[in-house]
Amino acid sequence: AQSVTQPDIHITVSEGASLELRCNYSYGATPYLFWYVQSPGQGLQLLLKYFSGDTLVQGIKGFEAEFKRSQSSFNLRKPSVHWSDAAEYFCAVGPPRQDFGNEKLTFGTGTRLTIIP
Amino acid sequence: KAGVTQTPRYLIKTRGQQVTLSCSPISGHRSVSWYQQTPGQGLQFLFEYFSETQRNKGNFPGRFSGRQFSNSRSEMNVSTLELGDSALYLCASSRQRTLNTGELFFGEGSRLTVL
Fold first, then answer.
1. A80, A67 in Cβ contact below 8 A?
2. pLDDT tens digit string along A25-43?
3. A59 reaches B (C-beta below 8 A)
4. What is the DSSP annotation of A37-88?
5. Rounded distance, CA A74 to CA A7, Å?
6. Could you report the per-residue pLDDT of B25-51, keeping only the tens digit for each?
7. Which of helix, strand or coil describes residue B101?
8. Which of B35, B94, B100, B107 is the most exposed place for a label (fewest CB within 10 A)?
9. In this complex, do A107 and B43 lie within 8 Å of one another by their Cβ atoms?
10. Does residue A31 sit at the B interface (CB-CB below 8 Å)?
11. Residues of B numbered 93-112 whose beta carbons fall under 8 angstroms of chain A's beta carbons: which are they?
């Protein structure tokens, strides 16, 4: 069964500092990979996704993520965080093909990001 | 264009009651998925509907059910509510069934509190 691990429950960074959120997955093949962000009281918004090809993917709001097959990781990065980036971040995996009956996202437990001035 | 709309946003029920939550997907989206979000379990997949048929189901008891209408709107129902059903219920829509064609668009959720 697929699983996603986000080892950091809570991260605090200073505004303007760089950020890296970790994500490791377990899956039989290379899955589709996603990062979502959830602001308080809101639903989830897709930041970026990896399906195939270039292992460094760019997303919205200045985020990027790098897929490393050898480490089964898909870490999210941002070179300089803004106070508005404070939110909860979820890594997710999905089936890499039309795996009918298994078309769902499996989410990590999330990393809460706090930004200090 | 309008996003995914969920109603009601907040509701309070007591144990043993039942509840129905509604989700209107983005126009043109035919797939609707439901997820339960709790602090302890995180985001858990409930089920997916496409063309009025349940296509996939998560590991939840039969008290959790849903349906989809011809206009792609979906409802989920929880019967005989338990305290542990307190959660944020998120609906997500996508244009097609498979994830490899795009992303899930989430609504803001319906927050259910069971007393």
1. no
2. 998 777 889 999 999 888 8
3. no
4. EE-TT--EEEEEEE-SS-SEEE-GGG-EEEEEGGGTEEEEEESS--GGG-EE
5. 12
6. 999 999 999 999 998 889 999 999 999
7. helix
8. B100
9. yes
10. no
11. 97-100, 103-109
